[in-house]
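Subject: for your reference before the review

Hello V.,

The reviewers asked for a structural picture of the protein, and I figured it would be easier to keep everything in one thread rather than splitting it across files. Below is the amino acid sequence we used in the manuscript, unchanged from the supplementary table.
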Amino acid sequence: MSDQPNNQQAEKPQSKKREGNYPVSESFQVLEGYDIYRSEKLIVALVVVQSDFGRDLRMYRWQKRNDAWKVDLCRMSVALWNWDTLAQKAKELTERYEIGRRRGQKTAPES
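And here is what came back from the structure prediction:
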């Protein structure tokens, strides 16, 4: 019986945030998203949203504060960025400076 309070706490909306579920403004409907990074306290993601103004690709960074997700760094449209160039430059820089290979760090899996 002592399990019930813990189960009820696990059902709070903040605890249900998982892959594909993003705490965006109520003015947006999430169509799809991709986690760049996710932990218990931080989410960085690309999210496709629908609003009264149409669809947009947005980048977000949320931080969990007092059991609530808050935008802490960015919530901007990235639809017009040249993603091929950005990916190539990121690859060049991470290889040149051996980023993600030091102190046992692992690079994110390709998908």
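For the response letter, the relevant points are probably these. The chain is about 20% helix and 40% strand. The longest strand covers residues 54-65.

Happy to draft the paragraph if you're swamped.

O.
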